[in-house]
Amino acid sequence: MFNLLKFQFNLFAKYSKSYIILSIIRHSILVATPLVNLIFPMLLIDALTESRDIQLVIRLIVIIVLINLISGLINNILNYFISIKTNYVFRLFQVDMANKVSLIDFEALESKEFLETQAAASKFLYSGGRGFGEILQDFFALFGKIFMLIGVVIILSSLNIVILIVFIIFTVITAIIEFRTKKILTKIDFEKIPIERRTGYYMGILTNFIFGKELRVFNANKWICFKYDNHLKKAQEYYKKSRFAELKAMLASLTIATIKEVVSYAYLITEFFRNNITLGSVTMYINSINNFTGTLNSILSSYTDLIAYMPYYDAVKKFFEWQTMSEKGGKKPVWGNSGSTIEFKNVSFKYSGSETYALKDVWVKLELGKKYSIVGINGAGKSTFIKLITRLYEPTHGEILINGVNIKDINYESYMKLFSTVFQDYKLFSFSLSENVALNDTSDDEKKSIINVLNNLGLGKKIETLNKGINTNIYKNFDETGFEPSGGESQKIAIARAFYKNSPIIILDEPTSALDPKSEYELYYKFDKLVKNKTALYISHRLGSTKFCDEIFVFDKGSLIEKGNHDTLIKNDALYKKLYNMQSSYYR
Q1: Burial class (CB in 10 A: 0-12, 13-18, 19+), 39
Q2: 2-321 — its CATH code?
Q3: What percent of the chain has a predicted confidence (pLDDT) above 90?
Q4: Going by CATH, does the domain composed of 328-427+504-587 fall within 3.40.50.300?
Q5: Nearest in space to 363 (alpha carbons), one of 408, 399, 393
């Protein structure tokens, strides 16, 4: 629990030290005001019933009203500023979480363990549904209420000690019931995380236009809605369990509170009729007893809240401790001279949960400045080869070297600057065309460079038809004047993104799958001119790029089975020749 409080305290202190100060002042007022309201009403009633001093009565009324007015005003003003600062810290912490997710290993994004850790960690933002920062407020309230309890105990010190012990026992029993209930609720909250993820996924399918065509053409809407409803029903069962646990706790607490009230009223009325206490004292003691049990219960409740909240803290701690490639990577500088090489040494890889190797015992060396074509039928291991070279995954066995240095020992950010990659499952965003190419905000000069790249890829005429030119949004999610590019246009935009980055190595993973073979050949011809002296890797199951390349790697069933230039491989009379002859009519 100490680590949880330390984490939250440091979090708020990091972004807003004034939040801590304002919270301490507010809770000090929240402690002092109820104590004043215990004592002054007693003095007022005794002044009315005993001394009948009208001036004293007026003074006491004025003091009570002013104290409550001023404390109420200050409390509300402080609460306003605390809320504003809480929202400010909440925003910055959300950004921290977003930054962490953006840097997390690509492989982790496919991991059920990580995705559920992330989902649980996100609940930390809302204190398990109570609101961001409430746990820290509980901590401040805990200390404030302890001081308040001391004050109430001093007032009640003249009561029968047995009665005081009975009230303490009642309160402890109530706190135990509450603690067990919160533990049950937290357990239920974690159990329903997979259901919530599924439910969110189904709603995402229904609202995401990417899935819209398939849903309508195949009339799958009702089926998805059926799945959505089934998971909502499962979530509802968890909701019922939660509410039932709360109901049992409320009934038990109500029973104990009723018994406590009967005992306290019976004892105080008996003492009053025995002339042991005044009417004002009866009022003060009744309020003090209620405050005592309420404050003690609140202290125990705040403590149980902190204990029950620990699983959320554990999740967010695990989330932030999840190592990224940049954290695991080395510090060595990246290569950059013309004699540099990238070498796969006996590299094998299999995806998590798979028994079959996607790549097996690959030995290959690439030289800076050359052009390579990586070919093979679908599922041969071509894209996996690229995911390894771009460090989206780490090899299961073997190592990848740059100039003899394992890439794990090289600074990750510097290494990633080497590559401009267009994956076969590339994505365009609901941003402007220029933002989609640059993946950043751009100046006027940078926009000129973007237009030049798009023109070189044959998109100049398309830009002329757009109302806002390259400032036009892709898709219409947020802008009715946006446009939806065709498959070929989308691929060219993705390719423009790679060329605009201007990295020394360009990787095109099945970049022309939406093009017919003739258009593919023409686009590769343009690539060859655009690439110039850069290193280029063309990955495809079609062979339109092979004649432009210095060397060709042929993959089959995860293994590198042939390598050489086009003429050499044709003479080999093996898989490459077979594939080329099957497709050669398209490129004549």
Answers
A1: middle
A2: 1.20.1560.10
A3: 15
A4: yes
A5: 399
